[in-house]
Specification:
The protein is an all-alpha fold. The chain is built from 17 helices and no strands. It has one domain.
Length: 431
């Protein structure tokens, strides 16, 4: 009888503990969704205030994208005969799809922003962060001042942030899940396809896909199915655009002809790695050749420019390119923390490859690797093409912030592991 009563008490205590945990998890989940909703409401208020103060800024190149989007909508077919331009990326086609007017573009940008916050939440849960750091990651990006402007602007940086963060989440799964969940490949192909179509900067989405394929490489049927689902969706929009360009201009151009110009502004006789007055650029069809000749004739100077841009990608924004001066502290905290998290995560994953191999990684470790791959690609892309501007960093900021908060969670785990050992040592000493 006594044993039965003790067993019953244990079951009751266990049930109460489980119920308490479930209640705490429910409260945490509610608070996270409420935080995301509140942040989106703040961005709506900022949009309304900007309208009340006058015509809001469209952002750098925003007027060009708006005019091209309106010309595309006025065209007779989906080829966009009135938007006869192949220098600018087809991001304006995405703007045209939502009406190419202020409210439609804002709804698109706000939706992408909200989905980015949900992706950050998913990543923090996959990485096993404690509740407080999950909230800090969501708020860190949601209240990061440039997001208020770029949700209003006609530019693509906010949208690409959604593409990168969503890709990191969709491919964050163990080997068994990647083999079984075809919907992940379907969704990732659709998101990546639209992202790469909007701007070639998003081409780095293939790296998490390649990692996922390496993880399931031994299950060849699952690998073939993944390829058949993912690849067509990824390339279809860009191939359609290339066909459009061939029909209108007689050239097979996948995205735009600006790739040569973007390489030229980064590698020429007066380049410094920053946006300064440039020499008159050569014609678009010659810019790539001119840039490549400069690199071949001046390899050491080109390497120096590459390294300068690599470092300046992490440089704190000048106050005139950020927003309110008193909020610049956000970057002083988030950027160094994210960089340290990037380095620590890279070292950690190298060790895990040696210990268990790719096939045995957990979903959290795959999520961490996806963040590393996408941030590394984005940094390297801008170290080759373009010059350094703070706005180019925005699409990578969700992942940089997640890496920074993950680093803090690692420090918390180590501290909590040491505390019981310290108590045990103290007890032995007292006894």
């Amino acid at each position: 009888m006594r044993v039965a009563m003790e067993s019953l008490n244990v079951k009751i205590i266990h049930s109460m503990h489980t119920a308490e945990q479930n209640s705490s998890a429910t409260r945490q989940k509610f608070f996270e969704y409420a935080l995301i909703t509140g942040i989106c409401i703040l961005h709506i208020l900022y949009f309304l205030l900007s309208i009340r103060r006058g015509e809001p800024s469209l952002g750098v190149d925003g007027e060009v994208y708006r005019d091209l989007a309106q010309a595309y909508r006025a065209s007779e077919s989906l080829f966009g005969e009135r938007a006869r331009n192949i220098f600018w990326t087809p991001w304006y086609v995405v703007l045209a799809a939502v009406g190419a007017h202020r409210v439609g573009v804002f709804i698109l940008q706000l939706t992408a922003f909200g989905l980015t916050l949900l992706a950050i939440r998913a990543l923090t849960r996959l990485l096993g962060m404690p509740p407080l750091l999950r909230i800090a990651a969501i708020a860190g990006y949601g209240l990061y001042w440039p997001t208020f402007d770029y949700v209003v602007f006609y530019q693509y940086e906010n949208f690409l942030g959604f593409v990168l963060a969503s890709t990191a989440v969709l491919f964050a799964a163990s080997r068994e899940e990647l083999e079984r969940s075809w919907w992940r490949w379907l969704a990732a192909g659709a998101v990546g396809g639209i992202g790469v179509f909007a701007h070639t900067k998003a081409a780095g989405v293939i790296w998490p896909a390649i990692l996922a394929m390496l993880i399931i490489a031994r299950a060849w049927r699952a690998l073939v199915r993944a390829l058949l689902v993912y690849v067509p969706l990824l390339v279809a929009p860009t191939l359609w655009w290339a066909w459009r360009n061939y029909k209108l201009f007689g050239k097979w151009v996948l995205g735009s002809t600006s790739i040569g110009y973007n390489l030229f502004v980064g590698f020429n006789s007066v380049a410094t790695g920053m946006y300064l007055p440039q020499p008159p650029p050569p014609p678009a069809d010659q810019a790539l050749g001119v840039a490549l000749r400069f690199i071949s004739v001046h390899p050491w100077r080109s390497l120096e420019l590459f390294v300068i841009k690599l470092i300046r990608f992490w440089e704190i924004s000048p106050t005139d390119q950020f927003g309110p001066t008193w909020l610049i502290w956000q970057e002083w905290i988030l950027m160094p923390l994210g960089l340290c998290g990037f380095v620590y995560a890279f070292i950690y994953l190298l060790r895990r490859i040696r210990e268990v191999g790719l096939q045995n990684w957990s979903s959290g470790e795959v999520a961490l690797a996806n963040c590393i791959l996408l941030v590394a690609y984005y940094v390297l892309f801008h170290a080759v093409f373009y010059n350094t501007l703070p706005r180019f960093r925005l699409p990578a900021m969700p992942l940089i912030i997640v890496l920074g908060m993950w680093l803090l969670s690692c420090a918390e785990w180590r501290r909590s592991e040491k505390q019981p050992k310290a108590r045990e040592t103290s007890q032995r000493t007292e006894s």
